[in-house]
Design brief:
By secondary structure, this protein is of the alpha+beta class. It has a single domain (2-93), classed as Alpha-Beta Plaits, CATH 3.30.70. The protein contains four helices and four strands, in the order βαββααβα. The two termini are 28 Å apart.
Length: 115
């Protein structure tokens, strides 16, 4: 398993716009071999920004790298530029190879989504 993460320092008054960009886009991830799941995470608030992370799980690093070279990747990232900056600096990429995975007794997905 390979986990690809990007961390974004989103300007405080741009959080709604940032979330709208992500929630409104067609990611094309589901079209890719090896794609497992995606999460957009909202983290702690700081003086000048709110930390967000995109978290994508892949079957392997090779599957992730194939995504970065794909037409689906280009389509998913070909957004119209915003007229106002949404985040401070560039996103910070972090990639992780899974060393250990411990599963648990998860509640049915419908029950988890209702919370």
């Amino acid at each position: 398993m390979f986990i690809a993460m990007n961390r974004f320092k989103v300007v405080k008054d741009a959080t709604a716009d940032f979330e709208a960009v992500w929630l409104g886009r067609d990611s094309h991830l589901g079209e890719m071999d090896g794609f497992v799941e995606f999460h957009l995470l909202r983290g702690p608030e700081h003086d000048d920004h709110v930390l967000y992370a995109s978290h994508t799980i892949w079957r392997s690093r090779a599957d992730f790298e194939a995504w970065t070279r794909s037409e689906q990747f280009r389509k998913a990232h070909g957004r119209v530029p915003s007229t106002k900056p949404l985040y401070l600096g560039h996103p910070q990429f972090e990639g992780f190879e899974a060393i250990q995975t411990v599963g648990g007794a998860a509640a049915p997905r419908e029950a988890a989504e209702a919370v």
